[in-house]
Amino acid sequence: MIWNEAIETMPLKDLKNLQSERLVKLCKYVYENCPVYKQKFDDQGITPSDITSIDDIEKLPFTTKLDMRDNYPFGLFSRPRADLVEIHVSSGTTGNPTLVGYTRDDIKLWSDVMARSLCCAGAQPDDIIQIAYGYGLFTGGLGFHYGALEMGLTIIPTSSGQTKRQLKIMQDFKPRILACTPSYSLYMAEEAKELGIDPRTASWNIGIFGAEPWSEPMRAEIEETWNMLATDVYGLSEIIGPGVSQECTYKDGLHVYSDVFYPEIIDPETGQSVAEGEDGELVFTTLTKQGIPLIRYRTRDIVSMTNQPCKCGRTSPRTSKIKGRTDDMIVVRGINVFPSQIEHVLLGIEGTQPHYQLIIDRQAHKLDNVEIMVEVDEKIFSDEIKQMRVLEAKIKKEIEAVLSIGVTVKLVEPKTIQRSEGKAKRVVDKRSL
Ligand code: DLL
After folding, report:
1. pLDDT band at 353 (very low <50, low <70, confident <90, very high)
2. Could you name the CATH architecture of 330-429?
3. CATH no. for 1-327
4. Which residue from 212, 219, 257 has its CB within 8 A of the most atoms of ligand 1, so it is best to mutate?
5. Which of 367, 369, 368, 341 lies closest to 356 in space, CA to CA?
């Protein structure tokens, strides 16, 4: 089922005309309503009349998280505060959090793109959905809620946490769809096994997982553990929340709702667009948002993108899974390290669990030290020490081959690493403390 067939299967030529029409309107709208954007246009020496089609988008200035922080709380809005019906906040590591707000029309837009996402993942109107993303300032819970309401699903708004209760609700009400972070789904599987519930018998057939990076091996692990189809959903508060892009049941890239969120992939160093299929930073322009529309917003997420048609019939461009972030990249001894590279290695080694944490430390005048804590199966702990050493050496060797730096590997017992009900914390960087 395709939620909005006319839009989602629109020939690319028509889609481009629609995007052009919307971009022209947007430029005029922000120039007239948001002094920060007027200034940005003036600094760039352009006026809205210079923008006549979507091909002119590269003439426009970028927007960054810094613009949001500098104009905190309401400076970047194009509408007076009184027109906003809801506000969300995305927590940051430094300075002010990022505030986003929605007019009533923006909530309608959010409901619509989220209904499109749910359908794209395989939801049917008579389904029950268990929403185990956090409800509150985080956009996950309410974003899914609006989409499910729009689609007419039966919603169980469990929010995140209280894992035993999540499992009981699943057993009692038999929802077919689960929405939560991928790491929380694995945490729930551990808890289920402890309670004597076989996860493979769970009622959930479809998982809609996102809000944090997760690899293909982790998908395989989740699908095997829960006996379900695990799809990827992507989004960020600044653009709308969840509902920016979503995998269909073919799981061959995330369909971007490019009629409303226009994507570009750029080289993060030069700002120039990269060739189709190459990795780069994902940039979005919100073509129809009212409250806080953004022009060429730099997400810092790294993906590649394709315009090739998908088997499902949707024509919108598709991105790869998120491959990393320009800022989450850790530089250790001059080498760029992404946590996802480590996850990839671990999931390919028998006996390890996808629960890991990198601890980076620097002692005075010494090189940075990287320790990787890896949870291993109970059985390995009860085996001989010698076998543990063999596994440790194997993990060390494989990770070093991928990262090109020396690391220390520490095997730990199941459940040693702290679990998260929301986004998992993969890196502890003690250097900056
Ligand atoms: O995480 C919105 C969301 C909620 C998406 C529920 C999906 C499901 P923020 O808290 O603003 O919004 O965080 C946005 O999270 O820039 C990515 O770095 C990361 N992220 C989100 N989805 C994915 C994903 C929500 N599917 C930031 N894969 C983004 C990898 C993701 N990273």
Report:
1. confident
2. 2-Layer Sandwich (3.30)
3. 3.40.50.12780
4. 212
5. 341
